[in-house]
Amino acid sequence: MANRAEIIPEKPTHIRRLPPGAVNRIAAGEVIERPAAVIKELVENAIDAGAMRIDIEIEHGGKSRIMVVDDGCGMNADDLALAVERHATSKLRPGDGGDYDLTNIATMGFRGEALPSIGAVARLSITTRAEDAEGAWGLNVEGGAVSGPRPAAFGGHGTRIEVRDLFYATPARLKFLKSDQAETAATGEAVRRLAMAKHEIAFTLLSGGRKMLTLPAEASGEEGRLKRLAAIMGREFGDNALAINAERDGARVSGFAGLPTYNRGLPDKQFLFVNGRPVRDKLIVGAVRGAYADFLARDRHPAVALFLDLPADMVDVNVHPAKTEVRFRDAGGVRGLLIGALRHALAEAGHRASTTVSSYALGRMTPQGGGGSGVSPLRRGAWVQQPPNPYLRDAQAPLPDDSGLSDRSRGFDGAEAPSARTEAEDAPTASGHVPDYPLGAARAQLHETYVVAQTPDGLVIVDQHAAHERLVYEKMKTALEGGKVPSQGLLLPEVVDLTTDEAARLEPLMEDFAALGLVMERFGDDAVMVRETPAMLGEVDIKGLVQSLVDDLSSLGQGLALKERLAEVCSSMACHGSVRSGRRLNAEEMNALLRQMEATPHSGQCNHGRPTYVELKLADIERLFGRR
Prior knowledge:
Blueprint: H1 4-7, H2 20-31, H3 35-48, E1 53-59, E2 65-70, H4 77-83, H5 114-121, E3 123-129, E4 136-142, E5 145-152, E6 158-164, H6 171-175, H7 180-197, E7 202-207, E8 210-215, H8 222-233, H9 235-239, E9 241-248, E10 251-258, E11 263-264, E12 270-274, E13 277-279, H10 282-291, E14 301-302, E15 304-309, E16 315-316, E17 327-328, H11 331-348, H12 355-365, E18 441-446, E19 450-455, E20 458-463, H13 464-481, E21 487-497, H14 500-506, H15 510-515, E22 519-522, E23 527-534, H16 542-556, H17 561-577, H18 587-599, E24 613-617, H19 618-624
Parallel strand pairs: 1-7, 12-15
Antiparallel strand pairs: 1-2, 2-6, 3-4, 3-6, 4-5, 7-8, 9-10, 10-15, 11-14, 12-13, 16-17, 18-19, 19-20, 20-24, 21-23, 22-23
């Protein structure tokens, strides 16, 4: 048996009070993890100081040198001396009773830890000049030792902060930094997030004398915000973004979300800002997943930038020293607001598809060296080999398993081919006039798969199967929303073992699950008994289904697995019941399909996120043939 000396090599003797230098270095480890964290803290201070321009320079990823210059309000000599003391801040004020209210935080920073923490592990130099002050002041901190304030030279007003030799006072921490390239990338990401949150402020970022980022100040309002987002997330995001605006119970969400057909393989373009503060929160992951569940395959992700504004007492920003995490008082209500706002914007988009689909199609047809001369591009040589289209991947993959529900799917009359009557004006007239419909008038069917329609200013090519699949799916969803989902009773109720906490988490939502066809009841303290399951699911892994609900409740606060499974079944049935490729359509059916697409929300993409049509403008077609 091990003795005490083996378990505790050095027996503790007395409790000691650590010296200030050690305290500062320990605190710095919580706030200052890497150069990007230093820049984040300094830029947030500049924002709180009212800066309208912030210039950042780094060397070797920020390891050897960081400089941040702003045109904010600046500081006088007394404030400068206090700024490098721990827990000294201008951003918290005492109330009537003398207490400081930590539940009503309206600034980016408030802990008073950034500057003293940086000074404890690096060589810190501050030069500042207050507005309307006659002169500037400077101060140095090296490894926690302060010298100054003293008179200094500084043009204009604002603050210049320079940090050299980061972590020289804590060499062990320096060893854990990544390469210069990785640290530079992390810095760029931190600055971009702050620039997205504050589009009225101009930002520049230089690395090794090379410009990484130049963002002019944008006008306040929705238009200016979109310009800033497009400058950071890409011009194509600006072209394919839907405006988000919704409000509920004092909370408001705004911003922009990409069309479903403008999607990515990674969720790296999903941003959430809470009261102007960029945060990383699993809430947005669940909200985006729920809102786009009907439109994207599971391995595709939309691009969104959401700005949530709510009363300060409804969110706790004092959860993490780096202030990158927050806690909501009503997380379920916030999540519902985000999902509702996204779904409303997607519904408003109607049949709109992303511009990247048409751009890809034009790229496939553009010959090498095409453009300027009047010579036909067909005479100029080889065609350019383009990368694979990310939106058309797995187009020939087998349809998902319908869980043995093929017989049940026959009851849906929405699976019939388009049959709306086509009026005389649907077809082009003898004079060549084309009706002014968004998707035009049908001209032909190619390979018994694609409908070609002529619009007043171009042409549209429709994938008949993908388009009708979306139409059928929307009808089936409406049928589901019309009443309780039919359920089927089990001959022998099945008991699912859970933990006590998991069973307690399920119990308040059992009525909601019963409306979806899953009827269960509490069975003791640590189990539930399932009596009925949704009829649409057929044979189902009951234990797996219940466990997935529990997992969703634990991670997201609301069970989504059952709803998503029902959506998958609807999608599969719609896929089987829609007009197949190889089916010949007459002119009336083709025009009816186009009119139904125009009247149906989300018809710009099929249930798997692939586009249902491609639109080519006449000007683009003329450029292909050298006419422009």
